[in-house]
Design goal:
- The chain is α+β, with helices and mostly antiparallel strands and 219 residues long.
- 28% of the residues lie in helices and 19% in strands.
- It has a domain of 149 residues: Glutaredoxin (3-Layer(aba) Sandwich).
- Strand 5, helix 3 and strand 6 form a beta-alpha-beta unit.
């Protein structure tokens, strides 16, 4: 499929802000690696993240950090996809400058969203907003296209790449083992068994040292 130089992203809109367990709104848009459709990522995990503007300090630090950890996401079967209202040519100039000045080649695509169609579809930008200056949102989308985690940061605070890796890992382990992850969980730590939801189940769990509502499972 070909797009003209002034083509705008096309998104399947959502009547409200995207919430956990929603199907991620599909879209087609130009990126720094050609035209991409969100549904093309089905079958893999995806971190879709927005940044307020190219050539800004916090965003530059995030892109360098994400690029350096790209192999870690790939090892989890997870792709990275960035989004900004800036134009494709601005994205390309910024990535070229990052490569020249920092020696880092950004391996993931950046979407151009000048009309904010994708930002509006995901609820990143309020319908009445004239710009996306406050947007720094992250969506973790599972292989079925379901939004499994959402985080929002202000313009002046950078995201933790290590936490994003931990989050994707925790979601995958929780799905695989049908268990929960406790506070501060890291790979290799014990998991938490689902709590009993009926009195009979609570009684059946016995009177051991661990309470029926907090039972660890070995890693």
């Amino acid at each position: 499929m070909q797009t003209s130089d002034n083509a705008q992203p096309q998104a399947v809109g959502s009547p409200r802000a995207v919430r956990l367990n929603d199907v991620a709104p599909d879209f087609t848009a130009r990126t720094t690696q050609g035209e991409k459709r969100l549904s093309d990522y089905r079958g893999r995990w995806l971190v879709l993240f927005s940044h307020p503007a190219d050539f800004t300090p916090v965003c530059t630090s995030e892109f360098i950090a994400l690029a350096r950890q790209a192999d870690g996401f790939a090892a989890l079967g997870c792709d990275l996809l960035a989004l900004s209202v800036d134009s494709l040519y601005s994205h390309l100039a910024w990535l070229k400058d990052i490569h020249q000045r920092f020696g880092v080649k950004v391996p993931f695509p950046i979407i151009e969203d000048p009309s904010m169609a994708i930002g509006h579809a995901f609820g990143m930008v309020d319908a009445g907003s004239s710009d996306s200056a406050t947007v720094r949102a992250t969506f973790v989308i599972d292989p079925d296209g379901i939004v499994r985690a959402i985080s929002w940061y202000p313009m002046n605070i950078g995201r933790s790449v290590d936490e994003l890796l931990r989050l994707v890992t925790a979601l995958q382990v929780s799905d695989r083992d049908q268990a929960s992850t406790p506070a501060g969980w890291s790979p290799g730590d014990p998991l938490l068994e689902p709590a009993a939801t009926t009195l009979d189940d609570a009684i059946a769990d016995g009177d051991g040292e661990a309470p029926w509502y907090y039972r660890e499972r070995g890693a």
